[in-house]
Amino acid sequence: MTLTLTKALEYDHLGETQTFDGGITLETRAEVGLLTHNVVVRGSNLKDWNDKIEACPDGFDPGEFATHTCFQGRFGEEIGSDQFGSQIMFHQQELNAGEVVGHIEHIEITYAGQAFRLGRYPIHFHINGDMNGSYVRGCGIHHTFNRAVNIHHTDNILVENNVVYDVMGGAIFLEDSIEVGNIFQYNLAIFVRSSSSLLNDDITPAGFWITHPDNIVRHNHVAGGTHFGFWYRMLEHPQGPSFTEDIWPQNVPLGEFYNNTVHSVGWYGLWVFEFYTPKVDGGKSKYGVPIPAVFKNLTTWNSFRGAEWVEAYPMQFHGFVLANNFMAGTEHYFNRGTAPQYSQDGAMVKDTVIIGHLNSANHPPCTKRGIVLPLDGGVLFDGITFVNFDGEKNENHTCSAIGTVKIVCICELLCAGYNYKFKNIKWLNSNKKAYWEWEHQAELEDLDGTLTGHGAGARAMSKSNLFPPECFDDDEWSPNFGGMICPGNESVDVIRMSFNYAKPESLMFKDLSVQNQYGTSKTKFRSKGNTFPSGWMLLLVSKLPHNISFINMDHITNISYNGAFYGLEDGAHVIVQHPVMQDIYDQFVVEKELDPSRNYSKTEPLTYENSLNGDTYFTNETKVLTYMISDKPNNPDVRLDRPITLRAIKCFYRGCKRPDVEEGPPVATERPKDAKMWSDPATWENGMPANDTDVTIKEGDWVVADTVLPKMKNLNIYGTLEIDDQKDPATGHVREFVLEATYIYIRGGRLLAGWEDSPFTGKLDILLNGNHHTPEFQKKNKDDDGPNIGSKVIGGLDLFGEPYNITWTHLATTADNGSNTIILETAVDWNIGDEIVMTTTSFNPWETETFKIASVSGDMKTLTLNASLQYKHLSFEESVGGMSYEIKAEVGLLSRNIRIIGADYNDMFSESFGARVIVGMQTELDEKGELKPHIGYARLSNIEFLHSGQLGFVASYDARYSVTFFDIGKVSTTRPSYVTKCTFHNGFSPAFGVIGTHNLELFNNVIHHTVGSAIIVVGNNNTLRDNLVTLSVFPGSYQDRFEENTLDWMASIEIQNATNTSLVGNVVAGSERAAYRLNGESCTEDEATWANNTAHSTVMGLTMWQPDCLKRELCSRFSGFYVYKSFSYGFYSNSICSVIIENSKFVDNGMSIFPYIKEPRAQEHAFKRKFLEVYDSLFVGASASYNCKTDVMKKDDHKNIALSKTAISWAFNGPVGRVALGWPMFASGDNLAPLLPLNNPHEPPALYGHITFQGVTFAHFKDTCGMTDRIFSTNPTGPDVEHPIYMSRIQLVDVDEKSKLFAHHPQLNCVDMSCDGKKKLIIKDFDGSFFGTPSSYIPESEYQYNGDRRHGFGDYRIP
C-alpha cells in the first residue's frame, strides 16, 4: 500500500531489510500506525493556552545524569496547552465484585489525561480486582498529558492492537505491583516522553511499565521514546492502597515476555531493574527455590542500550537480536543468589545475535560493547553470534564484542575479574573481540573452542605476566589493553582474589607486587569495588604459589586483612605467600571460623595433597607467611568461594590480655655507694665486654659507664646503667660517650644520664644500628610477654640533657630571602654551632628551613646563620576591632647534648628505618618459672632524636614511633614519665605515640620533619603543652610516592581517640595534610580548657571526622584556636555532632569554616536540633601580609596538593576568593568524604539546622588578588536547602558591601528546573550590626522567573 501524505516528511525514516554475514537479516523499518477513528474522546483544548513553544536550543538529553536545559521545548517546537484533558475511569466499590466491565475498541482518544493529578489518566482501571473479559483494543491514543492506559490493582485486562503516540509519562502502566494476568500484545507505542508532572517513574518513562511479572507481554513495538521500551520493576511488596506483606512480586515467576521490538529509545530496550529473584513457590515468601526468568525474542536497535538486568537472578535472555545500540547490546550488573551456575537453570544469554553496527549509510555510532559482563561470575553465554565488530569507533572507543560493567558509586575502575563461560560462539566480520582496560579484568572460558579457536578449555584474558609462556598475545583480543589466549590444552585455571581492611593502616592505598614462577605483576589499590572496596583485586593462576607483597611496605611483619577467593572447582587451589623480614608470630590464621578439631599450622611446606583450605606454614628460616586456599575439604560439584580473615600478629601478652601488675618501688634519686665502674674488671664475671658482643647489667647491679664503651649487639639492663657525668681526671673535661648497640632492652632496670635536679653536662650519643633485615629482638623466654620490640629500640629510661630556657620563639622582624641574619622576639640561650629550624609562613610547608648558628649577638636576639635564607619568613601583627593576631615564623632549637640516633647505613633513607624508644609493660618468667612484671617509664628532658622512627609501623600493636608509650597505664610518682624540651628531627614516623597511657605530659618539645603525624594520643588525662611541630610529611607523597587512591587525612596532632586531653599553647607550622584531628571539648562545661593552639601553612587546619566527635553529647566545642594560611579549610568537620567555635581566630585561609553535620534522616521524618555556633572570634579575609605572588600553591607544582583534590574548597574556583564561612551542610547521612569531595552533599538535607554568629569580628574582606573575598558563601554543589544564619554583636572592619555574601545561582540539575535552595537563603541580623539595621537577607527568589528557559521557572509551570 502506498500512502500520500498532506505534508512532506521532516526526517528520514528507515524502511529496509538489512542483511549481514551468515545470512542474518534485520528489519529496520519505521512503524506506521493509525491514530484517527470515527469515535473520538477528546479533552477540551482551551485556546488561551495554545501559545507557541519554541524548540529548546540544546534539545533533549536522555543521559542518566543529564541536566535538562529547558522545561518546555525539549522535544522540539510544539503548541502549549493547559494539559487538562479527558479521562475514562473504571472503578467499583469492592474488589472482584464483577460490577464493572470495560470494552473500548477502535476509538480515538486525544487531549486526555490531566497533568499533576494522580489518578487522572486517559484510560484508568482503578482497583477492580478481576476484570476478565474487559479490553482496550484497536484504539489510537495520542497527545496525552498523563500516561495512556493505567491498570491499578486490576487483573486480566486485554490490551491489544493499540497505537499510542506522544504520551507524557509511562504509556502502558501497572501501578501497584499487584496486577496479574493482564495481556499486552500487538501494541505500538511511539514517542513516550519524559514528564515532570507526576511521579519519578514518569520522569524516565517506559512504553511498558511492568511491576508484576505474572503478566503476558508479547508482539509489541516501542519506538522513539525518551527512555525505556520495557521496564520490569518488581517491588518487594505491593505498594500504595494495595500494600500487603503476603505477596512478594520480586519472587514471582515470569509470565511471558516474547517477540517484542524496541528501537530508537533514549535509554534501554529492556530494563529489569532493580531486584527480581523469581522462585518456584510463586512469590509466597522471600525464600524458595530459584527458577529462571526467561525473556524471549527481543529485538532492539538504535537505542542507548539493548537490554540490561541489574539485581536480577537467575535471568535468561533467549533469542535476542541487538543491533547498533550505542553503549551495549546486552548489559548485566549482578548474578547472585543460589541458582546453579553456568547451567540451563541459572543465568544465561542464549541464541542471541549482537550486531556492532548496521550496514546502512550514516548509521549511528557503533555499539561500544556487545556484551557487558556482570560483577559476578556464573553466567553462561551459549549460541552468541557477534556481527560487525570490525574496528569502527564510538567516542574514541574501539567498538568491541565483550567488556565488563562499571557501576557508578560501586566500581568504576579496576572492576570485575570473574569467570564467564562461552560456547557455540560465532564471529562474523568481527575482529575486535574484547575491550580490556587492565590486567585482572576477566577470565573468558571457552567451553568448546568456538570463542577463541584454540580448543575447549582455552581462556581469553587481558594480558598478564603471571601466566605460562604457552599463553600468547592475540591482536583480536587487544584493541586497547593487551589481550592474550591460553590454549585449551594448557588447562589454565584462574582464581579471583579480593581483599581489604589491610592492617597496619600503612598498608592501605599501597600497590601490590604479585610474583609467581612465570613473572611479576603490579596491582593497584582501588577505592571502590563490588567486593571488598578500599582494597585490592587480582587474578591468580590456580595450582601455583604466588608471592604477594605491598610495595614500599615489604618490611611490615604483622599483617591482617579480610577477603575472599572466588571460583574454586575440580582441584583448584592457590598458595599465597607473604615474605616478611622478621620471625615472631603468635597467631597466624586464615579461616574466619576455625574448626577446633583441626590443626591448621603445618610443619612442612604446603601442597594440595597434604593440606586443606586455611592451612598455614611459617618458619624462621624462610620468613614467608604461607597459606593454602583450596576446594578441600568437601570438594564441591560447583564453583566455590572461600572467605578468609588473615591474622598474622604477635600478641603483647599471653591470651592477648594485659595482666594486672602491681607497681614497683619508687626510682632511686642518687647513685648508691656500692655502684660498680664499667672500667673495673671486677664488675664483669667473664671479662671486660668486647665489641660486637652481648652485654647484661644484672639485677641489683648499678654500673657506671666511666670509659669508652664497646659497640654492642644486645644490651640487656636488669639493674642500672648510669652514664658518668664527672670530669675525666686525665683531661679535665666531661667525657663524651657513644653508646652503640643494635638493641638496648631495659628489663625492669634503668638507663640513666643525668638527674632531674642535676642534668647531664657532657655529650652522649646513643647510636642504634639495624635495618629492615635485622632480626627482631629475641626475648629471654618464648613465654615472655609485652609489646613487639622490633629492632633499634630501648625501653624505659631517665635521660636529662643540658637544659635550655627557651626551646622555641618567634621572629621579631621579617626575614627576607637572601639574608643570613634573623632577629628573634625573645632572648635565647642558644650557642654557636647549634642547629635551628625556622617555620614557613606561606601556604607551602616545604618553605621550612634549617640552619646552624654562626654567631649570636650580645642581647641574644640576633642570630647570624651559616647560610642564606631561601624563602621569606614573616613577622607581622595587627589589631582589628579590639582583637589582635600575628603572623610570625617560629624558630626552634634542634640541638641537644644527649642524642638518640638511628645509625646511618646505605639504605637508611629508602627504608626510612631509624631508632626508636618504646616504653611499655613486659612480663617474663624468672629462674623459678614465676611471672615477673616490668612496667617501663621514661623521663626525657632536653634530648635530641635524629633519624628516629620506622616508616610504616603505625598499628597500635606495633607502633614504631620515635617514642611510644604503650599500655603502661597511669603515670605515677613511683613510675614517673614525661617528655619535655626534647627535639625530634628528620624522622621517618610520628615522633610521639601515647597509647593506653594516662597522665603523661608532653611539654615544650620541637618536632621537625615527621612522616605522618607528629603526635598521636590515645589515653586519658594526658597533657600537650607548648609543643612546636613543623613539616609533617604526608606518607602518600613521601619521597617518590604518588598514592592517588589514598583516603588518609592524617593530622600532625591526633587526639581524636583520647579523653580529657589538655591542649594548650601548641603550634603546628606546616603540614601536608591537616594540623589537628580532634574530638573537641564538652559543650556543656562552663569553661573550655583548650587555649592558644595555632595551626598554619597546612592543607587543612582543624578536622573532626565521623568517629571522632563527642557522641554522648552530640556536640563538640573548639576554643582558643588560631588558624592561618590553611590552603583549603581552616576548620572542617564531618560528623553527627553539632559544633561550637569560640575565642578563635581565622586568617588568610582558603575557607575558614565548613562543617558537614549529618543525621537524623529526613527520609524517616526524624528531627533533632543540630547547629553551628561561633562566638567571640575573629575572621580575616586577606591580611596586609598576604602576597598574591608567593602565597599560591598549584597542584602541578606540589604533588601533595594534587593528591588533596577532594579536600580543596570551592574558594579560589570561580568568583569566590577567601571565605570565612562556607554555608554549612546539615544532611541526612554521609557524603562519602574523603572518597568524594568534602563539600559533596550526596544525601538529602536534614530537617533542622541553624547557624549562629555572636560577638564575631570580620576584617579585610574585599577584592584581593583579582578575586573577591566573602564572609559567607553558599556551596556551589550544596543541597537544595540552605539552613538559616542568625547574627548579633558583629564588628565589620574594612569589609566591602559585596563581600558580605556570595550566593551562587541555582544549579541546573534538579531534573528539568533549577534547584531553588540557593534562592531560599536567610540571614537574620538581630541588632543591625551586620547589615546596618535589624533585618533579614533574602535572596532574589524570582531569579530567572519567565527568564532563561533553562531554569524551567515561570508562568508556564502553573498547571
From TrEMBL:
Matching entries from InterPro entries are given as:
CEMIP_beta-hel_dom (IPR055401), Fibrocystin (IPR052387), G8_domain (IPR019316), PbH1 (IPR006626), Pectin_lyas_fold (IPR012334), Pectin_lyase_fold/virulence (IPR011050)
Give the G8 domain ranges.
682-813
Quote the SMART domains the UniProt record gives.
G8 (SM01225), PbH1 (SM00710)
Q: Which PROSITE patterns match?
A: G8 (PS51484)
Chief location bin: membrane
Q: Name one GO cellular component term.
A: plasma membrane
Please give the superkingdom of this protein's source: Eukaryota
- Record region (Disordered): 662-691
Pfam families the record matches: CEMIP_beta-hel, G8
Q: Does the keyword Signal apply?
A: yes
Which keywords does the record carry?
Cell membrane, Glycoprotein, Membrane, Signal, Transmembrane, Transmembrane helix
Query: Does the keyword Kinase feature in the UniProt annotation?
Result: no
Bilayer topology annotation? Single-pass membrane protein
Its localization reads: Cell membrane; Membrane
What PANTHER family does UniProt report for this protein, alphabetically? FIBROCYSTIN-L ISOFORM 2 PRECURSOR-RELATED, POLYCYSTIC KIDNEY AND HEPATIC DISEASE 1 (AUTOSOMAL RECESSIVE)-LIKE 1
Protein name in the entry: G8 domain-containing protein
Q: Which organism is it from?
A: Ridgeia piscesae (Tubeworm)
